[in-house]
């Protein structure tokens, strides 16, 4: 991938000092400013190329749109629900996280809450501190032989399962993505939620917060559970509906809850926190020295790798399509087509959402090809069809064919590229070179197709993009440019 220039980074939360040190060792100026109000952040962010946050900074569309230079939002941790990823993507800002740095810590806190719920440890501690010695009130129940339902069998769900199996718990679970045979290999039997609810003595949720997981446990689903079921939420506030939980605790349908996260943090409404059968923490899942060291270090290294054009690790959405050859090629073709059509500056990160907004339908399909790794993309815009095929060679995405023109050599999709469609003419290159020179642009490479019949596509590597593509229009039938 092409390097991205990051000279200044704002760290807006308490992130491990290794993060700052690594960024500074790599020539990036770092400012740390914590607990800023929204208006302060909006005023501050204008000057920075990068922002590093944890979960408390709300990186809303207002903040992103105020950030004229912003290229990267780094989340030192897992959840990016505090970042408006759509707004960032539309503005061409990469959002990246460090999803595995705090997995063990979050899993261990979940296990601690499960154990505390079974033996009323926090309540007993409080009672002791008040001078009591109450052995009857805090009668517990063993975890051994009980059923633990795990909703969300990703990184944390898996670690919780294997730890709680050591206590003799039977672990069952549900995840729409993790295949049942995979979770079975670490001892979790998968089933539908309808089958899961009535079997569980304990339920723990480990999904992201998204429309399909909001209120997974609600009045209706609590009613399907065993009376007295105990629940843990160490994932995100709202996956267990807070009002339904309170009702279930009051009716005894829920026997206890361990909560590390809340819809509003800190919660203004303290009804759950103050309930005698609730034990809670102020979002401490990732608050260990080890997790913070990993996340702080990882996010800094990921930013440095990106700056050096080495790697794009941890990118949340842009990364998903940029990591694949098909996604890269689709984005590159779209940037070429739309760069001068859309009012907003198009780049490889935001182009797919800009295209969607412009009503351009992009269909990516995969077909089995004899040439492994070959990828073909067709973009239909304004009734014209543009087809490209490419692959990744030595880690570099290359273009092999553009709308019927098969290039003699693969064209590296890096740097500033000019695509020209014209009828084959030996005078084309000198004429184009003359126009480019008069615009102060040098030719760095030239790729011609193998077959010169009819209108064909050429690719010209240039020192910089042209201010106005119209200067080439008298010489060519079609022209597009992009910077990668
Ligand atoms: N309390 C904390 O401090 C803390 C720390 C780390 C992570 N977290 C949170 O924990 C959660 C899990 O993190 P992770 O790293 O395991 O994520 P992950 O992406 O590895 O796993 C999430 C799993 O949820 C599954 N899922 C998605 N929709 C689902 C649904 N409707 N029903 C069931 N499963 C569904 C996904 O398929 C995935 O396997 C996230 O919300 C994350 O933000 C909290
Ligand atoms: O999603 C996460 O990584 C956790 O919720 C931790 O958030 P924190 O970095 O604010 O502790």
Automatic annotation (TrEMBL):
PROSITE patterns: D_2_HYDROXYACID_DH_1. Residues 112-285 form the D-isomer specific 2-hydroxyacid dehydrogenase NAD-binding domain. Pathway: Amino-acid biosynthesis; L-serine biosynthesis; L-serine from 3-phospho-D-glycerate: step 1/3. One of its GO terms (molecular function) is phosphoglycerate dehydrogenase activity. It is an enzyme of class 1 (oxidoreductase). The keyword NAD applies. It catalyses: (2R)-3-phosphoglycerate + NAD(+) = 3-phosphooxypyruvate + NADH + H(+). Its EC number is 1.1.1.95. CDD domains: PGDH_4 (cd12173). InterPro entries: ASB_dom_sf, D-isomer_2_OHA_DH_cat_dom, D-isomer_DH_CS1, D-isomer_DH_NAD-bd, NAD(P)-bd_dom_sf. The keyword Cytoplasm does not apply. Residues 9-316 form the D-isomer specific 2-hydroxyacid dehydrogenase catalytic domain. Pfam families: 2-Hacid_dh, 2-Hacid_dh_C. Homotetramer. PANTHER family: D-3-PHOSPHOGLYCERATE DEHYDROGENASE (PTHR42938:SF22), FORMATE DEHYDROGENASE 1 (PTHR42938). This is phosphoglycerate dehydrogenase. It comes from Xiphophorus maculatus.
């Amino acid at each position: 991938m092409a390097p991205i220039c990051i000279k200044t980074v704002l760290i807006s939360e308490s992130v491990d000092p290794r993060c700052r040190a690594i960024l500074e060792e790599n020539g990036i100026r770092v400012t740390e400013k914590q607990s800023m109000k929204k208006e302060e952040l909006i005023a501050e962010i204008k000057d920075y190329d990068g922002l590093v946050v944890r979960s408390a900074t709300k990186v809303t569309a207002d903040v992103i749109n105020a950030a004229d230079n912003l290229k990267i939002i780094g989340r030192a941790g897992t959840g990016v629900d505090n970042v408006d990823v759509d707004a960032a993507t539309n503005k061409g800002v990469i959002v990246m996280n460090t999803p595995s740095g705090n997995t063990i810590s979050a899993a261990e806190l979940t296990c601690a809450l499960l154990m505390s719920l079974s033996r009323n440890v926090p309540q007993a501690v409080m009672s002791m501190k008040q001078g009591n010695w109450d052995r009857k009130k805090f009668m517990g129940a063993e975890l051994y032989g009980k059923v633990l339902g795990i909703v969300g069998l990703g990184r944390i769900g898996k670690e919780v399962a294997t730890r709680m199996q050591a206590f003799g718990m039977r672990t069952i679970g549900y995840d729409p993505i993790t295949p049942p045979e995979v979770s079975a290999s670490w001892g979790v039997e998968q089933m539908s939620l309808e089958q899961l609810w009535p079997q569980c003595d304990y339920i723990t949720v480990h999904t992201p917060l998204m429309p399909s997981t909001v209120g997974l446990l609600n009045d209706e689903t609590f009613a399907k559970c065993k009376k007295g079921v105990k629940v843990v939420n160490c994932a995100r506030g709202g996956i267990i509906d807070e009002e339904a939980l309170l009702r279930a605790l009051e009716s005894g349908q829920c026997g206890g809850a361990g909560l590390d996260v809340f819809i509003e943090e800190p919660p203004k409404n303290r009804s759950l926190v103050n309930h005698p059968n609730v034990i809670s923490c102020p979002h401490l899942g990732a608050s260990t020295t080890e997790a913070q060291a990993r996340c702080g270090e990882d996010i800094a290294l990921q930013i440095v790798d990106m700056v050096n054009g080495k790697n794009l690790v941890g990118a949340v959405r842009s990364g998903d399509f940029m990591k694949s050859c098909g996604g890269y090629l689709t984005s590159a073709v779209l940037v070429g087509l739309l760069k001068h059509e859309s009012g907003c500056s198009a780049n490889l990160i935001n182009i797919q959402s800009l295209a969607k907004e412009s009503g351009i339908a992009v269909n990516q399909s995969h077909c089995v090809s004899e040439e492994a790794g070959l990828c073909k993309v067709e973009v239909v815009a304004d009734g014209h069809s543009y087809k490209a095929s490419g692959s990744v060679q030595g880690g570099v995405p290359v273009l092999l064919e553009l709308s019927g023109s098969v290039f003699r050599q693969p064209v590296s999709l890096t740097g500033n590229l000019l695509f020209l469609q014209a009828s084959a003419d030996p005078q084309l290159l000198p004429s184009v070179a003359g126009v480019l020179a008069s615009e102060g642009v040098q030719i760095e490479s030239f790729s011609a197709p193998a077959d010169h019949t009819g209108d064909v596509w050429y690719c010209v590597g240039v020192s910089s993009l042209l201010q106005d593509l119209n200067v080439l229009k008298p010489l060519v039938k079609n022209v597009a440019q992009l910077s990668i």
